[in-house]
């Protein structure tokens, strides 16, 4: 089980940094991803980071604004979100892809363990 934190209410153009930590797993051993689900919409992949070499991927809607990273010493995954827009409003989840590879996957079906989510609300 993962625990996300860092969500909140922010004005458009602002920034938030989400964190994902786990007490049971060493997140450094897996590919990890961030997903989000807005009201009335399906959950979508936002970003992921590969375990081997840390190659990253981003959804087109967040490229250039969001940055995923790892703190290897702390075993924490971050999602830095800048230039936030009202359309970024959603519950954000971190998840584990049971793989250790250069290239991670942004498809929800590839992930097997999820956090409880943290709410991000961007006001216009």
Report on this structure:
By secondary structure, the chain is mostly beta strands. The protein is built from no helices and eleven strands. The protein has strands at 2-5, 8-11, 16-22, 31-37, 44-49, 56-58, 66-71, 76-81, 90-97, 113-114, 118-123. Strands 2, 4, 5, 6, 9, 10 and 11 form a seven-stranded mixed β-sheet that branches. The chain has a four-stranded antiparallel β-sheet with strand order 1-3-8-7, with no helix packed on it. A hairpin with a 6-residue loop joins strand 5 and strand 6. The radius of gyration is 13 Å and the shape is globular. The N and C termini lie far apart (33 Å).
Q: Any idea what the radius of gyration is?
A: 13 Å
Q: Structural class of the secondary structure composition? A: mainly beta
Number of strands: 11
Largest sheet: 7 strands, mixed
- What's the SSE pattern? EEEEEEEEEEE
Catalogue the unreliable spans.
none
Range of helix content: under 10%
Number of helices: 0
Q: Average pLDDT value? A: 94
State the distance separating the first and last CA atoms: 33 Å
Q: Could you say which overall geometry the principal axes of the C-alpha atoms support?
A: globular
Percentage of residues in DSSP E strands = over 45%
């Amino acid at each position: 089980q993962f625990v996300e934190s860092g969500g909140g209410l922010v004005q458009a153009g602002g920034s938030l940094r989400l964190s994902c930590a786990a007490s049971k797993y060493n997140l450094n051993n897996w590919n990890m991803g961030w997903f989000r689900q807005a009201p009335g919409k399906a959950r979508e992949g936002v970003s992921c980071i590969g375990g081997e070499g840390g190659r990253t991927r981003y959804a087109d809607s967040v490229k250039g604004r969001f940055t995923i990273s790892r703190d290897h010493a702390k075993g924490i995954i971050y999602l830095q979100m800048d230039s936030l827009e009202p359309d970024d409003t959603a519950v954000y989840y971190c998840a584990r892809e049971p793989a250790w590879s250069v290239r991670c996957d942004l498809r929800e079906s590839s992930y097997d363990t999820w956090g409880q989510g943290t709410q991000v609300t961007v006001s216009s």
